[in-house]
Amino acid sequence: MLDTDHVFSRFESGVLTIILNHPKANAFTEEMIFSIQKIIKIAADDERVRCVLLTGSGNIFSAGHDLGEVYQLRNESFRDHLMQTFNPLILQIRSLEKPVIAAINGPIAGAALGVALACDLRIASEEAQFVVGFLGVGLSFDSGVSLFLPKLIGLSRATEYAYTNTPISAQQALEWGLVNRIAPAEKINSQAEDWAAEIARGPVHTMGLAKRAFNKAHFADLERVLDYEARLQDIARCSEEFDVGLQAFMDKRLPNFL
């Protein structure tokens, strides 16, 4: 596969596993996103691949987009950036006519939440926490979060947890339908692998047709929503709140938006 310093992959029993490996928070960089895009394209073209499993290394899934890289991009168009990175990745996951499972092995936030929610199925560690994240640094949503999150947990809950950045526990995530299963932290990898192997033994072609039907019924506007999110991020990028939020993050302190 197309392994890099920060993205590993392996293939076994029909399952292609993609592992985020960017210590210490597995935050996404452009290089990582492009690598995952290439691996998913391989998965789409290789008939031996019957299921894709996406997870993080260590005890964290991903903190979202690397804000150090965001800081470097702060004077560039966020829409242009998203149109090359997260938007096509989200569309790839949804259009891949094979099951995609996210094994959320620890905390997850921001764009990483969008990536996980784009997957067909999710299993989480009991110690995982889900943080919407964007507004905490003065940004709006991207990566489909504005569509996926309310659809799964309802608009009222999505609004509250977006506005407050309060973490959603794994148990809450299970009860609200944000994840399908939870597992003990020490067993998340093995249980995710077993589940993926089980799914891979099923009627994958028909699953692809079912996924196509789900997309038509529930996510027909996904591409338009992703584009609109990207436009709003460009507006947020030019705001004083983003300057305050990003600088506070770089200084490792809480932002003061007053």
Describe this structure in words.
This protein has about 260 residues and is an alpha/beta fold. Helix 3 (about 80-85) runs antiparallel to helix 11 (about 220-235), helix 4 packs parallel to helix 5 and helix 6 packs across helix 7 (about 155-165). The relative contact order is 0.15. The chain has helices at about 30-45, 65-75, 80-85, 85-95, 110-120, 145-155, 155-165, 170-175, 190-200, 205-220, 220-235, 240-250; strands at about 5-10, 15-20, 50-55, 100-105, 110, 120-125, 130, 170, 180-185. It has a domain at about 5-185: 2-enoyl-CoA Hydratase, Chain A, domain 1, CATH 3.90.226. The termini are far apart. The strands form two sheets. The chain has a six-stranded mixed β-sheet, sandwiched between helices. A hairpin with a 2-residue loop joins strand 1 and strand 2 (about 15-20).
CATH superfamily of the domain at 7-185: 2-enoyl-CoA Hydratase, Chain A, domain 1
Please count the helical segments: 12
Level-1 CATH class name of the domain at 7-185: Alpha Beta
Regarding quaternary structure, what we see is single chain
Residue share in helix? 40-55%
Please identify, by name, the CATH architecture of the domain at 7-185. Answer: Alpha-Beta Complex
Largest sheet: 6 strands, mixed
* pLDDT < 50 runs, ≥5 residues: none
Strand content: 5-15%
Structural class: alpha/beta
Strand order within the widest sheet?
Answer: 1-2-3-4-6-9
Q: Which sequence of SSEs, written as H and E, runs from N to C? A: EEHEHHHEEHEEHHEHEHHHH
Number of strands: 9
* Arithmetic mean pLDDT: 96
Radius of gyration: 17 Å
Form type: globular
